[in-house]
Amino acid sequence: MAVADPTLEFEQSLLAAGARSVIGCDEVGRGALAGPVAVGFAAIDHSVGPIPVGLRDSKMLSEKRREALAPLAESWVLHSAVGLASAEEVDRLGIIACLGLAGKRGLVELHHAGIDVSESVVLLDGNDDWLNKALSTPLRIVTRVKADRDCASVAAASVIAKVHRDRLMIAADASTPGYGWAGNKGYGSAAHLSAIATRGATALHRTSWLKLPSATA
Predict the structure, then answer these.
(1) d(CA 117, CA 23)
(2) Which of 37, 72, 158, 200 is 20 to 30 Å from the Cα of 44, by its Cα?
(3) CATH assignment at residue 151
(4) Contact 91, 207 (CB under 8 A)
(5) What is the structure's pLDDT at 46?
(6) What does DSSP assign to residue 31?
(7) Which structural domain, as residue segments, surrounds residue 48?
(8) Cα distances (Å, whole numbers) of residue 125 to 153, 160, 162
(9) Does 26 count as an annotated binding residue?
(10) Which region holds residue 27: left if phi is over 0, alpha if psi is between -120 and 50, else beta?
(11) Are 24 and 107 in contact (CB under 8 A)?
């Protein structure tokens, strides 16, 4: 059965209720064995134009389509941002805390770009408000299951964050070859696991997630 394209119906209801802007939010790289976790944000307001044709949750798009859509999504929204937390931080703090840390960094970037975050609503994919747990001043956050599929601002955040993180992993594959990161983007493919067993872990690996002894590659 075909999946409907995301709409702005839910975002428009939040704007009508008084939000200055709606900031779609989604995370990427949560389950990877290597590389950072990324949290993407895409802010819209009443001036938002037509949704870019073909925009969907990043998981529903090929890499080629994501690359084509990312700049369209970035120009469609008021501002976008991607916050990162490193593999070392994931090992030291845990993945949930690092989702919040990456989210906090992305929100600071949005603030510096001119978005009044405190007067906005953050529309967060899923049912767990991991973002407010990391903030000293709570924001108005609305969680929504499948928001990345159904809500265009969250789909845009998903695509922007995915392309940003993928490019980092492709660059890392060039500088630290042998792990196939250009293809697996740090996730646990058979070839990636085999490379870890043969070569050991690198500084980009979340060593606390590995059952194999770590080494510097």
Answers:
(1) 8
(2) 37
(3) 3.30.420.10
(4) yes
(5) 96
(6) T
(7) 9-162
(8) 10, 15, 14
(9) yes
(10) beta
(11) no
Unique residue bearing structure tokens 């501002």: 79
List, for residues 27-54, the tens digit of each pLDDT value.
999 999 999 999 999 999 999 999 999 9
Query: Which pLDDT score, from 0 to 100, does residue 2 have?
Result: 61
Q: Does 27 carry a binding-site annotation? A: yes
140: Cβ–Cβ under 8 A, 6 or more apart, which residues? 19, 120, 121, 122
d(CA 4, CA 107): 29
Say if CB 16 and CB 83 are below 8 A apart: no
Q: Where are the alpha helices (DSSP H) in 56-151?
A: 63-76, 87-93, 95-112, 147-150
**209 domain residue, yes or no:** no
| Cα(137)–Cα(213) distance, integer angstroms | 40
Neighbour-count burial for 199-215, b at 16+ CB within 10 Å, e otherwise? ebbbebbbbebbeeebe
Cβ contact 5:67 at 8 Å:
no
- Looking at this protein, which amino acid is placed at residue 166? D
% pLDDT > 90, the chain? 93
User: Is 169 among the domain residues?
Assistant: no
Query: Which tokens go with 160?
Result: 């922007």
Report the amino acid identity of residue 44.
I
